[in-house]
Specification:
Elements: H1 12-24, H2 29-43, H3 52-56, H4 60-80, H5 87-103
Length: 104
């Protein structure tokens, strides 16, 4: 499958903390993002609960960024022609990412 790059804006502290935790899981930010997008495609939505109560505390900027990320994920699923992944496929993506990390 052809690879492409994306660019996102994220708070420095969030990035640092996420990288630290993900490395303990044997994942990179890139591999975790791939897993997230594949789950978005598989579930045809955000793969965790969202509620209006949580959104009330967020800023308009955060809402705008979320909307942009959501639209990008939708576009990626159309471009990639993927609709669903099996659990085995998801596990293989994770294993591949772990192999990449181990090879570094």
């Amino acid at each position: 499958m052809a690879q492409t790059s994306i660019s996102i804006r994220i708070d420095e502290d969030v990035k640092r903390d996420a990288e630290s935790l993900l490395s303990k899981l044997g994942l990179t930010l890139s591999s975790a993002t791939n897993v997230f997008f594949r789950q978005v495609i598989r579930t045809q939505g955000i793969p965790f609960p969202l509620s209006a109560a949580e959104a009330e505390g967020s800023t308009m900027e955060a809402r705008r960024e979320f909307g942009e990320a959501f639209r990008a994920a939708q576009e990626a699923s159309v471009i990639n022609g993927t609709s669903e992944m099996t659990l085995d496929e998801i596990n293989e993506v994770i294993a591949e990412c772990r192999r990449e990390v181990a090879a570094k």
